[in-house]
């Protein structure tokens, strides 16, 4: 009975007759120009420590941190349809795992950051298995509950200072890989060069996450995610593996959050449960950034993070009013411009810096 | 036998969508399904493809039990279907819709861009290849339903009211296309209210009423069955004229 379906299906036979001259293109001209601009920008960012001050380096680190975290949340919510309010679980776990690896295993801090990233990916699997059992709002609540559990566990674990937290031993960070070479290169004190090395690591991490997210969206997994977002039943009916697609996004976002959590706390040098697992810092602000910039685009979180840091710089003096302003702004955006700042820009100009459209060409030309 | 349903039941509260349905589809045949609105035709497709889980009964595809298989598994085994109310991936282009189906729905990886393009041509969507599916007219959405199902390279194609709203000419083209597909070995099951189109393609007909098969067999004989006539009487005048 099940004789012939294995080798070739009927419809395939029907269409095998050759139709050549077709090809697929993704990039656009603006994309190629943008790539050149981005490459120059990246070179500028690498060289920045040579000509900008310590406080600018710190500002840029904060922007890069937020871009990375926002990109991860954007993938989750904007492409995976997974509204998580518990990404602080991975930020905190990454940070704590890194501290553990430095203090108890004696790893070089940068190696510990890598270990924390891998750890974030691994721990996201069981957490995902748990939270994926819930739908919609229950999923969101579950992610938050899980994060709270880890916060409490961290505060009762005495090995890293319990509720009051702990700091990295000076020796661990002063002997960090690359510090001496950087200090000699720029002729600076080792405390400054430590920050420069972390800055470069942060830059690399941001690039990996942004480029990684973009490549995922350009791959067939990106097609699957878009299809799922548009219509889950139809997606399943053409063979898309829904749970797997969402899981890939979840693991990516978990690893990313752990990576940035580790890097941030390496720079800070201290850790405590309440700030490492802070829902305000690692989820609320991040959601704000994605909403302002534009959900479901690669550029949205980048624009949002820059806007957020600018707002913070100029409005932080207003204290609580500043937070209320952020909240009001987010609500106004959601109501009147759900596509975000970058979405508005794209609508007006047609410019798409990270295109994913796959265009069918015949003999190199596009049909109308 | 390509598909075999045995004693399949499905209820939604008081509504019986499938009432002890036992039927089969031969490899290579073209089978038609008719029935009044709400008779359970679309539900039957949803049961076959796994979108609905049967309350009881057994479904075999290619000779093995798929009653508990996922929608995705059944697709990759060779079931392709169109939705009565089109469900395009609206933010993707027409071509990307097909690409997704080809990428995830085919069991082997011998798909090619040329094949996808060829499907666009035969379904009349070549000019819309790079148009966002959300911007399509209803007619083109229906074409996309068929095209996307074909892109998964199905052995069995389940078509749900794909001719509704088509002009006479368009309907004729569609009939020719479905005949072609069938001639090339694709097994067809077609739910259709436009009976003359249906009868020009299928060699066997099943009639559903309140989830139950009330008649099946050679189309002409089935259409003249008094119970089938009664089932339609007063429900759909157009159809009655067409039968007459
Ligand atoms: N998911 C569902 N939940 C509850 N009731 C449903 C569901 N799907 C279908 N039904 C009901 O089951 C019955 C059969 O519906 P179905 O869509 O299968 O009919 P149909 O024969 O395809 O009708 P039509 O010709 O209008 O397409 C209807 O009464 C419908 O309201
Ligand atoms: Mg129906």
UniProtKB/TrEMBL annotation, chain B:
Stored InterPro entries: AAA+_ATPase, ABC_AA/LPS_Transport, ABC_transporter-like_ATP-bd, BCA_ABC_TP_C, P-loop_NTPase
GO BP of this protein: D-alanine transmembrane transport; L-alanine transport; L-isoleucine import across plasma membrane; L-valine import across plasma membrane
An example Gene Ontology molecular-function term: L-phenylalanine transmembrane transporter activity
ABC transporter domain segment(s): 3-235
Family annotation (Pfam families): ABC_tran, BCA_ABC_TP_C
GO cellular component: plasma membrane
Keyword line: ATP-binding, Nucleotide-binding, Transport
Family matches, as PANTHER family: AMINO ACID ABC TRANSPORTER ATP-BINDING PROTEIN, CONSERVED COMPONENT OF ABC TRANSPORTER FOR NATURAL AMINO ACIDS-RELATED
Protein name, entry field: ABC transporter ATP-binding protein
Source organism of the structure: Pseudoroseicyclus tamaricis
Lineage: Bacteria, Pseudomonadati, Pseudomonadota, Alphaproteobacteria, Rhodobacterales
């Amino acid at each position: 009975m099940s004789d012939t379906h294995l080798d070739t299906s009927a419809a395939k036979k029907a269409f095998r007759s050759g139709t050549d001259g077709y090809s697929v293109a993704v990039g656009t001209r603006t994309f190629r120009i943008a790539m050149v601009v981005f490459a120059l920008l990246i070179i500028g960012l690498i060289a920045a420590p040579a000509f900008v001050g310590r406080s600018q380096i710190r500002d840029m680190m904060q922007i890069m941190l937020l871009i990375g975290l926002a990109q991860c949340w954007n993938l989750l919510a904007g492409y995976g349809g997974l509204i998580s309010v518990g990404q602080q679980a991975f930020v905190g776990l990454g940070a704590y795992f890194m501290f553990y690896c430095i203090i108890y295993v004696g790893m070089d801090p940068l190696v510990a950051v890598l270990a924390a990233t891998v750890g974030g990916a691994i721990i996201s699997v069981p957490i995902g298995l748990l939270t994926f059992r819930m739908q919609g709002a229950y999923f969101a609540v579950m992610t938050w509950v899980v994060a709270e559990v880890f916060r409490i566990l961290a505060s009762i674990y005495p090995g890293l200072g319990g509720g009051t937290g702990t700091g990295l031993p000076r020796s661990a960070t002063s002997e960090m890989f690359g510090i001496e070479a950087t200090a000699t290169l720029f002729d600076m004190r080792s405390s400054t060069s430590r920050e420069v090395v972390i800055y470069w690591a942060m830059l690399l991490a941001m690039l990996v996450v942004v480029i990684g997210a973009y490549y995922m969206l350009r791959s067939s997994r990106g097609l699957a995610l878009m299809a799922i977002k548009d219509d889950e039943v139809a997606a399943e009916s053409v063979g898309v593996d829904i749970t797997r697609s969402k899981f890939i996004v979840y693991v990516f976002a978990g690893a990313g959050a752990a990576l940035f959590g580790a890097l941030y706390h390496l720079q800070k040098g201290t850790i405590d449960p309440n700030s490492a697992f802070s829902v305000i810092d690692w989820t609320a602000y991040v959601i704000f950034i994605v909403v302002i910039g534009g959900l479901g685009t690669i550029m949205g979180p980048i624009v949002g993070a820059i806007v957020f840091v600018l707002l913070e710089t100029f409005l932080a003096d207003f204290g609580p009013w500043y937070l209320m302003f952020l909240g009001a702004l987010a609500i106004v955006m959601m109501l009147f411009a759900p596509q975000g700042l970058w979405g508005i820009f794209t609508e007006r100009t047609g410019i798409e810096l990270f295109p994913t459209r796959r265009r069918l060409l015949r003999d190199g030309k596009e049909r109308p | 036998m390509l598909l075999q349903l045995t004693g399949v039941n499905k209820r939604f509260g008081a509504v019986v969508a499938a009432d002890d349905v036992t039927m089969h589809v031969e490899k290579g045949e073209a089978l038609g399904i008719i029935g009044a609105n709400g008779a359970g035709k679309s539900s039957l497709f949803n049961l076959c493809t796994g979108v609905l889980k049967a309350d009881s009964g057994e479904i075999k595809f290619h000779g093995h039990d798929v009653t508990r298989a996922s929608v995705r598994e059944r697709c990759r085994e060779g079931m392709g279907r169109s939705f009565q109310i089109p469900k395009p991936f609206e933010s993707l282009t027409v071509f990307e819709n097909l690409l997704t189906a080809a990428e995830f729905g085919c069991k082997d990886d011998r798909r090619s861009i040329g094949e996808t393009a060829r499907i666009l041509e035969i379904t009349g969507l070549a000019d819309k290849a790079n148009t966002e599916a959300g911007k399509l007219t209803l007619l083109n959405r229906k074409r996309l339903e068929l095209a996307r199902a074909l892109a998964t390279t199905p052995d069995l194609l389940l078509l749900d009211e794909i001719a509704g709203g088509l002009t006479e000419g368009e309907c004729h083209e569609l009939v020719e296309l479905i005949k072609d597909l069938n001639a090339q070995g694709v097994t067809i099951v077609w739910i259709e209210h436009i009976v003359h189109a249906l009868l020009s393609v299928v060699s066997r007909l099943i009639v559903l009423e309140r989830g139950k098969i009330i008649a099946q067999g050679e189309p002409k004989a089935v259409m003249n069955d008094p119970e089938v006539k009664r089932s339609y009487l007063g429900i759909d005048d157009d159809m009655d004229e067409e039968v007459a």
